[in-house]
Specification:
The protein has four helices and nine strands; from the N terminus they run βαββαββααββββ. The protein is an alpha+beta fold. The relative contact order is 0.27.
Amino acid sequence: FDYRPFSFHGTPSKQNTESILKNGWKVGNGNALGSGIYFGFIPGAKKGDKNKVPVPGLDYRSNTAADGYASYSGALIIAEVDWGNFANWEDSTVSQEFFKWCTETRTNFNGGDAITEWGLANGYDSVKCPKNGYGVMLQHRYEITKKFWKTDKIRVCYVYSIGDKKVENLT
């Protein structure tokens, strides 16, 4: 299981990371790229690229969208993510495919849930914005009604507590 580079999931409290590790993920509903688990990543980083894939350490921040969710007192979950077959949302042909699907299925394209349904119906596991450095592991909306979602496609490696400036190594 080696899906470097790392991806980052921000959460406003350390207690949330403990719940994720114990129980699984809570599926977010219909945000920018659909329903699922959101991660930030370092744009352009490739497996083995030591300059762009920092090793977590003291006073570590990912400089990704995840930092905003973690704020100044929360935590960053640092994970290896198997994005599987992903749709590149920055590719104009992908958005054209999406709008065509919405027209054919008479689906309202104004919600993130439409992206989720389109992605899963077309064999995508995730949707990413590589240049902007974030993506989502897609999950059907019905999963939201379940309390937690467990998957082997996300391997938590570290938890960085921002307030304490401590890194917990889980590998």
